[in-house]
Amino acid sequence: MSKLHELFSNPAVESFGKALRTALTKNEDYASLIELDYAEKEEDFAIAIKKFLRRLGKEVYKPNERDLDEIMKLAQEHGVKLVCAAIISHALAYPHKEE
């Protein structure tokens, strides 16, 4: 159970979740949400992340290489479906007041 908590509280997962929230609310980018939800293999996940970052644009979200490396490592360790679920959960959760 603590591993699940560590996954959800991982800074890379939180960062991508917030970026997905921004994509959904400001750009109405539901395609990225669907692609992440349907990703099952690591290759699918990598392609979904690439498309998501391209759609979002650097003016809205500038990912750092450490978060990108970490998110891919987490997908290998915990499985793609669980990492995608964590990212999507962060995106759909009610944001902090400062966001």
Give a quick set of tags describing it.
about 100 residues; 6 helices; mainly alpha; single chain; Four Helix Bundle (Hemerythrin (Met), subunit A)
Q: Short description, anyone?
A:
The chain contains 6 helices and no strands.
Structural commentary:
The chain has 99 residues and is an all-alpha fold. It has one domain (2-92): Four Helix Bundle (Hemerythrin (Met), subunit A) (Up-down Bundle), CATH 1.20.120. Helix content is 75%, strand content 0%. The protein has six helices and no strands. The chain has helices at 2-8, 11-26, 30-38, 42-56, 65-78, 80-92. Helix 2 (11-26) packs across helix 6. It is globular.
Please indicate the count of domains.
Answer: 1
Oligomer: single chain
Mean pLDDT: 89
CATH class: Mainly Alpha
What's the story with the biggest beta sheet? none
Number of helices: 6
Helix content: over 70%
Rg, Å, rounded: 12 Å
Number of strands: 0
Low-confidence sequence ranges: none
CATH topology: Four Helix Bundle (Hemerythrin (Met), subunit A)
Tell me what portion of residues adopts beta-strand conformation: under 5%
Coarse structural class:
mainly alpha
What is the chain-wise order of helices and strands?
HHHHHH
Envelope shape: globular
Topology:
Layout: H1 2-8, H2 11-26, H3 30-38, H4 42-56, H5 65-78, H6 80-92
